[in-house]
Amino acid sequence: MTEEKKVKKNLVIAIDYTLTVDGEEIDSSKGREPLEFLQGKENIIPGLEREMLGMEIGESKDVVVAPEDGYGLTDEEAYMEVPANQFPKNIPVEVGTELQVENEEGQPAYARIEHIENNMALLNFNHPLAGKELLFSVKVVALRDPSEEELSHGHVHHEDHNH
């Protein structure tokens, strides 16, 4: 295996990262294993993947990702009003509650209660970070060739450490 020096397509990249949105740190690899992903396979959001091309091991970078290259713009159609009395008893009907529902195709969809008025709850099906500008502070900590299986599946396989 050749020792790769720069981030490029079809390499497994390991990064330390911090994600800040609206001035608030909302995700980080601090205190955890670095995030590993297969470059060029859309395992991570496109704006970050594109900006990391050509980075070297040990290199750090701050990357601002526009909503279009992150979790998308807010979709004004992705809302639904539901009578509060239709919620299962074990789900608190309050702003901020997140729940999983099935869409028309029977696929799981995530929503959160955005607003409650006149016993109607407004469900928001947008990703919580839709419409947000994302600031990633990233550092490349390792690069490696993927296994044939990882390459054919298009994503990193992790050893099962019996967590």
Please tell me about this protein's structure:
The protein has helices spanning 46-52, 148-153; strands at residues 12-21, 24-28, 35-38, 60-65, 79-83, 98-102, 108-117, 120-124, 134-144. With 163 residues, it is mainly β. It folds into 2 domains: 12-70 and 130-153, Chitinase A, domain 3 (Roll); 79-124, Thrombin, subunit H (Beta Barrel), CATH 2.40.10. β7 and β8 form a beta hairpin.
Summarize the structure.
With 163 residues, the protein is mainly beta. 8% of the residues lie in helices and 37% in strands. β7 and β8 form a beta hairpin.
Mean pLDDT: 92
CATH topology of the largest domain: Chitinase A, domain 3
Question: With helices defined by DSSP (H or I, 4 residues minimum), what is the helix count?
Answer: 2
Total strands = 9
Distance between the termini: 30 Å
Main sheet: strands, sense, barrel: 5 strands, antiparallel
Topology at a glance:
Layout: E1 12-21, E2 24-28, E3 35-38, H1 46-52, E4 60-65, E5 79-83, E6 98-102, E7 108-117, E8 120-124, E9 134-144, H2 148-153
